[in-house]
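To assess whether ligand presence alters the predicted conformation, the chain was also submitted together with zinc ion. Input:
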Amino acid sequence: MYDKQAQTADILKILEALVAFDTTSFKSNLDLIDFVAAKLEKAGANVHVLKAKDQPKANMVATFGPNVPGGVVLSGHTDVVPVEGQEWTCPAFEMTEKDGKLFGRGTADMKGFLAVALAHADDFANASLKKPIHLAFSFDEEVGCTGIQEMLPFLSDYVAAPRLVVIGEPTSMQVATAHKGQYVAKTRIVGREAHSSRPDDGVNAVVVAAELIRYIDDMASHVRQAGPFDESFEPPHTTFNIGPISGGSAFNIISNKCEFDWEFRFLPDQDGPAIIAAYMDHIEQKVLPTIKAKFPECDITNEIWAYLPPLKADPGSDGESFAMSLAQKNESTVVAFGTEAGHFQGLSFPTVVCGPGDIAQAHKPDEFIEISDLEACSRFMVRVREAMCQ
Ligand SMILES: [Zn+2]
């Protein structure tokens, strides 16, 4: 029998422990993974800790029940965004309960979901599961989803094709079936330094950067006016942004170096790689020949340091209707933020985003989650378990 009170107390205890691990993305998550793996092993799960290639971090995949097709994957990231520079009125890495809310870094994004899943470990273990329940916990989601990319080969080799993957990012337990994709890139320009009074002796990298930024902003204006459009998103088109830029050394020196970060978030039905290709083409065909003709040492490189595939809706599919029945919702939604979902969908795993908490709290000082939201997620887990026993 499902005892709501006992379950909530368990969830709170586990969430308190998870928040206390400072798993800011630039730090190790191994202590948290050890804690989680020990807990799941004790409950009887088949646990795989997958060490990161070149840093002290790990992913973890744990399985309850037989590893056969048709299961559910409950997926979440273990890292959190930094608290530096934010004005917290409560301790960030210590859970504080107040007025039905739980404060602390990661409570909403997304240790709350992990805590609910973990609180159900014994119930998963004791149920007569005919289909498996997998827990897939990743590192480095907040810094470009690099952890999940290391987990993908294991998932495709080991996890029998699931019926559904649930990414427990905060949606207030709404079922989100789509989000935009994202590219994040750094463009570096090597010019040639000279005295500012001798423009023909140099190539100003800052000016070249300005030209490229103009090109990116023109692409932004173009999609804003000409589309494609998808009205389920706000705004209903692909967006671009220029981030930090640095270059130049003095007003009287022609700069030989400039670099800038930029990103774009593209609609699921827009061809993201084609946008990158168009930008590279512009550089290769138009800009590089001009500056190299002046001085061959001039160069432009573009490094893509994060790629988030979009999550594409699959209306009427079994995965989406199954997710809606688990969440007891009649309609689905889309989310404005990116998640690891597109990577799972890339393995042909039906995937949705559905988790407790409000994305408006994520990444903010005094981040919190409502206890009632965790309880709604707990009821979701009960339905997952029941579905996997059928
Ligand atoms: Zn998140």
